[in-house]
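Quick review question:
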């Protein structure tokens, strides 16, 4: 199952001002120049967000999960019904064995802890703190300022190719 856990006491304070599902959907839509998710559906039940639709790529899927999860009051994001074009292609490839296998990268999410810096996180995952810019670039919708990260915030750690 594609359930992702988040710190419900951290994140952007958006809930409780109207239709929570619409608020989160708008937050996702406004985080991208052009919405790269066809048929985006957002449903909020208590502290769980259900996301559905077809993302243009795997990175967009991950970013949408992070945007929804980094909202105060959200503890889990269910992304079972949010698929990417790569996931669809991979599924088709398995069904039609003659197609080339498309590798889907492993998701690595990291919840920021008190005292963390992007340099320290980059050193932990890449053995090179100067590669923190890859983390910022992969999380531009969540990290608005590289100097301001918050304990409890969940970010994506992208694969860095040499």
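Suggested answer, residue by residue:
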């Amino acid at each position: 199952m594609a359930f992702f856990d988040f710190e419900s006491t951290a994140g952007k304070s958006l809930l409780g001002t109207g239709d929570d599902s619409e608020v989160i959907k708008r937050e996702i839509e406004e985080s991208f120049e052009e919405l790269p998710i066809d048929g985006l559906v957002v449903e909020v039940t208590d502290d769980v967000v259900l996301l559905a639709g077809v993302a243009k790529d795997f990175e967009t899927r991950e970013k949408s999960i992070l945007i929804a999860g980094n909202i105060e009051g959200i503890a889990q994001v269910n992304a079972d019904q949010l698929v990417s074009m790569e996931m669809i292609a991979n599924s088709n490839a398995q069904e039609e064995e003659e197609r080339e296998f498309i590798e889907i990268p492993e998701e690595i999410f990291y919840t920021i802890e008190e005292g963390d810096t992007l340099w320290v996180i980059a050193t932990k995952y890449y053995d090179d703190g100067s590669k923190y810019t890859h983390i910022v670039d992969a999380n531009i919708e969540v990290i608005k300022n590289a100097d301001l990260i918050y304990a409890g915030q969940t970010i994506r750690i992208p694969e860095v190719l040499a």
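Why it works: Residues 58-69 form the longest helix (12 residues). Residues 1-107 form one domain.
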